[in-house]
Amino acid sequence: MKIAVIGTGYVGLVTGTCLADLGHEVIGVDKEKAKIDMLNRGKVTIYEVGLPELLGRNLGKSLNFTTNTHDAVFESEIVFITVGTPRGEEGKADMRYAVEAAEEIASAMDGYKIVVNKSTMPVGSTKLVERVINERAEGREFDVVSNPEFLREGSAVRDFMHPDRIVIGTDSQRAAGIMAELYKPLKAPLFITDPASAEMIKYASNAFLATKVSFINAIANICEAVDADVKEVAMGMGYDHRIGFEFLRSGPGFGGSCFPKDCQALMEIARSSGYNFYLLDGVMQVNREQMELMAKKVERRLGGLEGKKIAAWGLAFKANTDDVRDSPALEIIRILIERGAQVCAYDPEAMQNALAIFPDLDCSANAIDALRDADLLLIMTDWDQFKMQDFRAVKELMRAPEILDTRNCLDPLSIRRLGFNYEGVGR
Length: 427
Fold this sequence. Notes:
six-stranded parallel sheet; alpha/beta; 2 domains; Rossmann fold; 44% helix
């Protein structure tokens, strides 16, 4: 099929590249000419495992990129909207980019099109896009479909190619049949429902996963108080098939482009519908407090922060991505610096993005250089390279052998045998 993908961020670039790899003809569209030029040279604009290889394999064949939205839409049967829906006022999703995309689609429509809301959009967005297109292309034949993405940064290509399910929200049998054919090569369960339910499925899924993260972090804090080990507790819980192991890893809190934004948006959807979502409000409160708690752990271990040097390993909100949006690491570093600490940070992929948000952040060229004369090593992203460091050499460089491992990615017994004062989360 001929497909246009409007927006080449995380969702758009992965979606377009993977659809091209499945054999469809894809045109990726973005207003940023510099980004399009990079992509047409075969350079990925985000860090995502497996994406450079897919881009190289399909570029110039089944995959091309342009800044010309009109021509891309005109030539396509299916148009995916994958623009950003950032957090707006009071937690509402900001739909201006989606509305702009819908307006541009309407101006280029010449025949039947399926317009797919792929970005995470609030309940009612399918109707909103329909209304925008109808106002500008009255009489044109089209359907708008909700097809939420369930991609995890760091494993987005694998998640697209091997999905747990594909959700299609539409009241049109014609659109449902074409979308089923589009995804047929994936051989995944296809769940067809109404648009509002499809939109809610995405928010409900992310809110539930965020709840699991905050729940295990709250359990971790209790474990510390009663001398239990949260990793053992999570293991014992995870064997219960009703619970499972996923998202039961304690840490500094959740971040990224999805959980914080989607939870806030869902709470706003609930409020505007007359319902107080106390449970989800508690999830967000636990998450905020977890970051503050990590800063307090550092302060307690060092007997104060004024003038102390901290080596911070990790800036991305999780490993295998360069995304720092709502990253707990940046918030914890901000708190530490405000309270008088000197922080030297390193991340293998996310430093450039971190500096765009935090321009005064002191960053090191590598993990080892960040350690020199540090009073404490603070691990905030569980990159594999951090786990495989020579910790004997690490100890020699530091002023004091203190480690706070907010990701529980090191083995406490091994590290303590090397002479470190080690602390994890809930252990």
